[in-house]
Amino acid sequence: MTPTTHADLDAVILDYNGVIGLQPTTDQWLHLARAALWPDDLPAFQNAFWNARPAYDAGQLSDLAYWATVLGHHPGARRLRELRDADTYMWTPTDDHVVEILERTHASGLPLVLLSNAPRHLGDVLDRHPWRRLMSHAFYSARLQVCKPDPAAYQHAMNATGADPHRVLFVDDRADNCLAARHLGLRTLHYTGRPTDLTAALQSSN
Predict the structure, then answer these.
(1) How does pLDDT run across 25-50, given as a tens digit for each residue?
(2) Are the CB atoms for 196 and 36 separated by under 8 Å?
(3) 187-190 vs 137-140, strand pairing mode
(4) pTM for this model (two decimals)
């Protein structure tokens, strides 16, 4: 169903990964682990990957520093490029159903703002994707040098909407990010992968 009115909403702030972007598949994780020459232990690789990720997403680590932290040693220039490319590729597939909903929402005139925890290179790549034109603004944590759920991250997006927080819907796949948004007065949708929930939240007058 096409949303036609949003009488109680002035803007929507959306996360990228897990909402617009699809979660990586096991095959994509394995491809990245192979690029890292990691032993045959995907959970251990993912643990190392995520332990260093907050600082990388916050722009505190360069690509080289991040992967050196993950691996425990500095990769060469060629391997660094392979790791960065495999990492970036893992996060770029999108959910066509969600993009279609956002296309309709954009056409209805409701402003959309992106707020994503993402390293600098990934943000640069996402900015070149066709769906990015749907966003009036896009904020990436590495550029802001602060990650959700820090209130300062949300404030950039809220300022961009120019709207009363109570008239702004925040959509994220992480419960802790939604909780932080609610504390700032935003409406929230904890998105769990069902596009119909997003449509309903955009149409709801509650």
Answers:
(1) 999 999 999 999 997 899 999 999 99
(2) no
(3) unpaired
(4) 0.92
